[in-house]
TrEMBL record, chain A:
Key word Transmembrane helix present: yes
InterPro entries (UniProt xref): PepSY-ass_TM (IPR005625)
Coiled coil spans: none
Keywords (A to Z) from UniProt: Membrane, Transmembrane, Transmembrane helix
This protein's name: Putative iron-regulated membrane protein
Any one Pfam family match given in the protein's UniProt record, by short name: PepSY_TM
Highest taxon of source: Bacteria
From TrEMBL, chain B:
Region (Disordered): 88-111
Keyword annotations of the record: Membrane, Transmembrane, Transmembrane helix
Protein name: DUF3325 family protein
Membrane-spanning parts: 39-56, 62-86
Species per Swiss-Prot/TrEMBL record: Gluconacetobacter liquefaciens
Amino acid sequence: MKPTFRAAMTWLHDWTGILTGWVLLAIVLSGTLSVFRPEITAWMHPELAGRTADPVQASVAAIDWLHTHAPQSPAWYLTAAGPRAPFTWAVWQQQDGQFVQRALDPSSGAPDTIRDTLGGEFFYRFHFELQIPYPFGRPLAAIAALALVLALVTGIVAHRRFFTDFFTFRPRKGQRSWLDAHNLLGVTVLPFHLIIAFSGAVTLATLLLPWGIIAAYPGAPAQFEDDLSPAMSARPAAGTPGTLAPIEPILRDAARHFGADGIAQIYVYNPADAAATIIAIGGNGTHVGFNTHVLRFDGTTGRLLADYREHRPLISASAALYGLHVARFAPLPTRWLYFICGLLLAAVIASGLRLRTLRRRRQGKSTEVVERLNAGMIAGTPIAFAGYFLANRLLPTTLPDRAGHEVQAVFIVWGLMLLLAIALPSARSWRVLSCMATLALASVAAFSAPWLTGVAQGTAAVAILLAAGFAYAASRRQAPANRAP
Amino acid sequence: MPVLPILCELAGALLLAAGNERGSRALLRRPVPLAPRRLARLTGFALLAIALWGLIRDESNLLFALTTWTLSCGSALLAAALACTLRDNPPARTHTHGRTRARQNATDTVP
């Protein structure tokens, strides 16, 4: 039993961090990159650099192409082109049941002239699925999100001099400096940390607490989804062939309804059936809440079946929390702030992990294995993610299943970095991996050449700044014997 | 880019740092009495409020403005903390009495 409440909270803070720190670091870094998901996808499609696209025209071209090449798919899921992404992102099902995700050319609607890559979609999916097969990834991410909330709350209680130490950072003092950095990065951006952790946990809450749904909808989880998003449900297939109505007038009508919000997504259910349904989802141009304005059209006649705006208070609150988490509403400066704050959260986690090993070392306990794994995860994760960017440029564009190979590259690099970190003494592994991170990130900046677009310039700038950070870390690494106590 | 709110936030964060005991000692390199620190702190809060008002005007949306303000305040406070670190005078702190140093360490989060 811990003697005081604060001691108990410190103990809980430590153990929560230790048990979930590595997973949280990967989740937070991938989530931070997901803030710029369309931009990363654009960077990974250099064929589309400098192009612009009208969302309606590009969606019409995409649906025409899908009509010819994937009529058998039970549904087409499109994310409309826009100022951030000059392409339509489409997901459909092949005859063998496999789902395909591709960027479609805004003019022709075809994916043939564009390289096969998941782009920013990989980071987005990894953020909450961890590339672990269904249904294990999402619950793990949900537990990690809850652990982050717990770590933050217990951290607030454990931090004794919250306001006194607000502007304190004492460099070159070993463990004291790491504690200062951990506290400073945690406290100054605390509202962001709390909101992002809480909204993340709420987003996956049905996985953590499914019993209410099971009790209210016994044996009919689809009914719950229908009640949750009434306009999103498709009509059952009639079983007789049908032809889609001309799509452009439908989308123009939808764009008029959405106004400044614009069209974000278009779902076409049962496209070759007489009961085809087209769902158009409004964007977040003027509000934080996510997916709160939905239109449903009859796919064969083009008639508007439902114009649904979410007004239920609890679901609106949940949509607002989710909207705050995914930041689709955010204008560019706010998105950059999300990105910076996300990096700071990753730094809080990394400094916490490092602090734990320093403290144990000071207590005379062995930390070598954990320290090596820390190096493998803290420096290895950015290298693996940079490897994804590099694979995008280095793999041949005609390689079959190219997108899959890019993703494999991430895990191969990650595994190699962990092996390297385990093989080397910890002080050396920090230095070697920091140097490799510097090289990998500098290469990403170089591959952004000729730096003509905002996406290329932004990617190069971030990569160079992170590379400089790792170069500084590599230069500061010393052998344990020479390190300040 | 809302330049005026950003400048207000940076100035506000620096004033909050000047209103903090450790922050003021680092920024001004000498201990500052309580009254000026309190004034600096109040002015800092006022500037942060002005920045929020500017953001609400720019964004025309309270929630958007509040989100941006919260995030940018964090970054501004971090910048102020960095300024304190850079301005801090390490030689002066090496003369801290051993017992004071020990007491400081003992009251920190991690012993």
